[in-house]
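Teaching assistant's notes for section 4

Start the section by putting this record on the projector. Ask students to predict, before seeing the second block, whether Erythromycin esterase family protein will look compact or extended. Collect guesses on the board.
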Amino acid sequence: MPTQLPHHPLHSAADLDPLLAQIGDARVVLLGEASHGTHEYYTWRAAITRRLIEEKGFSFVAVEGDWPDCFEVNVAIKQPHDGQPPAQLLQTFNRWPTWMWGNWETAALVDWLWRHNSPLLPPQKAGFYGLDVYSLWESLEQIMQYAGRKGDAAALAAQRAYKCFEPYSADPQEYAEAVAFVSKDCEDEVLTMLRTLQRRTPATNPDGLAVEIEFAAEQNALVAVNAERYYKAMLRGGGSSWNVRDHHMMETLTRLLELHGPESKAIVWEHNTHVGDARYTDMVADGMVNVGQLARQQFGRDNVYIVGFGSYQGSVIAGKSWGAPLEQMRVPEARPNSWEALLHTDIGKDALLLSSELRPLPALQDHLNHRAIGVVYRPEREKYGNYVPTVVPERYDAFLYLDQTRALHPLPTPANEHVPPDLYPWGV
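Reveal the predicted structure now:
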């Protein structure tokens, strides 16, 4: 292994200057995390996000969250404040894992976005959107509300789709199991609903928010289409459902960039497993793709900048099984011969590493074990799992190493009883 890895000190937002310089004119910046429950990952991503918006004019933040909940936040940060604190608004994130966006760290970012937006004209306001595919029922309900006000063909199509799913009691797993071995499912209904919304006549002389509301209705229909595919693919196993999900997130990101115009720029917050180019991990052997790979392929590597995150030890918020109560858990020292153990031994403190400075080192062109903690985590199983073999300088363009980390601070949000299933060991 190499010693004296080239790195830059990381103490404050001012230390991000080398990162901002390398990002340059990239249109899409992907910010990862090695867990969904670590305080420092959220706060450092927020620091990078604030600088990208203020100094480079980035248009919006798109996160690994549900479209309906995130769009409610988006509307709130673009309107005059009604006295409701951001923390209260984030309690709408009641799908497990509630802490992923229902936390004080995200509340601080949302509050900053509102204060940043307040003096700006509508086209200049930064947005906040969700990329994920899980919100089948919530998206259907949003479409029913929207289409009901319109009273046209879209309303009839939405009613047919909603009625098709009604027998399954808002439980996507029950739906997937029920249609697994029969020819009748709800695919035609949601596709018809999407096509009907796409053909609708745009509002006359709409303002910016009206355009976004129209866009949100169509996006909810797209979520319903891809969620229906996701839950059916989930039962088939393999990487098919993962690919449905990441293709949906990439499609949503592309639609958001188109909505905001040719000069728009996006910041994406997702787990390392979604943003770090899958071609430089063992995911490729299973035929799995991710947002980082798709973004590089679609926009070109020069227009996409990927930042990975990781730490050596500390604490994290996670559940012991899918849908289990959240817990603060200990994150043990990283496995020997892992990327994190190498950084701890060689650097031993928080640091920014740039891939352009790491690529000349031959040993880093091999696959190293790189820790990935999901919303499901059992520290005692570290020796068997939780690591993704990775060619680090190719998977990412930069890496933020945080030697000791702490659990984030969840809001006291009761979880919705219907928990979308997940079959992946990382729970990401």
